[in-house]
Amino acid sequence: MTIPPTHLTSAPGIAYDTYRPWTNWGGNQTATPAFTVRPRNDEETIAAVRFAIREGLAVRAAGSGHSFTPLVATGGLLIDLSGNTGITGTDKARRRVRAKAGTPIHAFGDRIWADGLALKNQGDIDKQSITGALSTGTHGSGIGLGSLSSELRWVRLINGHGDVVEICEDQFDRLRAAQVALGTLGIFLEVELEVAEAYWLQETITYPTWDETASTWDHDIDNNRHYSFLWCQAEESAPLYELPTPDSQSMVNRSYTKRYNAVHLNEAPTTSHTEGARRDRSYRIYPGGFMLPFHELEYYVPRENSLPAVEALQNLIRTRHSDQKYPIEVRWVQQDDGYLSPFYKRDTTSLSVSGAPGTHYFPYLRDVDALLSDFNGRAHWGKLHFLTRSRLEALYPEFDAFLAVRREFDPHGIFLNDHTRALLA
Ligand SMILES: Cc1cc2nc3c(=O)[nH]c(=O)nc-3n(C[C@H](O)[C@H](O)[C@H](O)COP(=O)(O)OP(=O)(O)OC[C@H]3O[C@@H](n4cnc5c(N)ncnc54)[C@H](O)[C@@H]3O)c2cc1C
């Protein structure tokens, strides 16, 4: 792999917007930064951060704005990374890919397949920027597959001193902090991920009753590369997440289950577009995006506790929140060792629920939070949650180790906003 050296030039002229409103995908977070810049290359990003340091402005980065939490909001300088994208190198022998920080996940597919490589796993959409996804621990499903963050092997960033630095694989503390950093170490310019040899996937969609879903619990988790399901409490549930369902089949108390298993390249696969039984290159099996907005919370419990946790959540919906119609999505993620990774040293089951935009869903989400706290639940950093500093300290054994790296990289806190300062100052 040829990695070009870093050339720092003097600050080029950069176009700044002033007081341009910013809104996230879900429409529940807005901000009016004093300055917004959309760099076209690393030099412009570096110049923008140094400008902010000189002027005493706080700085936040925006990926594709798919987080529901106030991670991006700032009144200072907003750096929109969507203009600095592209795969910068691949190394098939080491199964590595480097990409500019703003590269969307969907841009990896065809490009790295051509070099015999593929992302090991993907989530429910591929619209996020790679660094936005890394920064919050974004994941797909599969008990043998880690989050995207767990695949981070190298990063080049500009820190709070205005210095461009690299974090390499032998810098364990820094790399483990960088894996899930919420934009608080600095602005990432380029990242390197470990990926897989190119592979095909076979999809199998089924619609079991809840009793059937529960009866094959461990078997399904352990015997599928990707296993996940969405449990529907009401007839209205499936359409809210645009789930295709069989004609004349009630989905009440049934699951829409997804199983994706690898088909080896030497088995000469043929593509199938049959709904529920597709066979294709890995990245074409994963969904692209959602058209309908929703506001989501996703909590993570240890795999061992997961069936009782899901049944307790179903009971909460039936007894106290029957007006809430979005399905419960259930997925699995392999443990890793990122300091702020929700999967830190525990194989995890994820449970997610959503509220309808414009409705009063917070009492429901608060009850879900209280319920899953009893299961030692951690939370998706990019989805609605109620974690406080003291709860984080109890949930993350290496919380202080993360803070030490954050303070080293950004001693004056220029990369903090109100949300992250309360949690991570
Ligand atoms: C419809 C939908 C589906 C989703 N599906 C999944 C899923 O399947 N699995 C899952 O785990 N999550 C999922 N999410 C959540 C989503 O993946 C995360 O919120 C992710 O962080 C969004 O990426 P983004 O590019 O939009 O980043 P943003 O939301 O724009 O930013 C996220 C964080 O990254 C930081 N950041 C961005 N770029 C940089 C940079 N260059 N340097 C430093 N920091 C940076 C930001 O400052 C912020 O802290 C979904 C969200 C939506 C709306």
From TrEMBL:
One of its GO terms (cellular component) is membrane. This is FAD-binding protein. Pfam families: ALO (PF04030), FAD_binding_4 (PF01565). The keyword Nuclease does not apply. It comes from the Bacteria. Gene3D superfamilies: 3.30.465.10, 3.30.70.2520, Uridine Diphospho-n-acetylenolpyruvylglucosamine Reductase, domain 2, Vanillyl-alcohol Oxidase, Chain A, domain 4. Residues 29-198 form the FAD-binding PCMH-type domain.
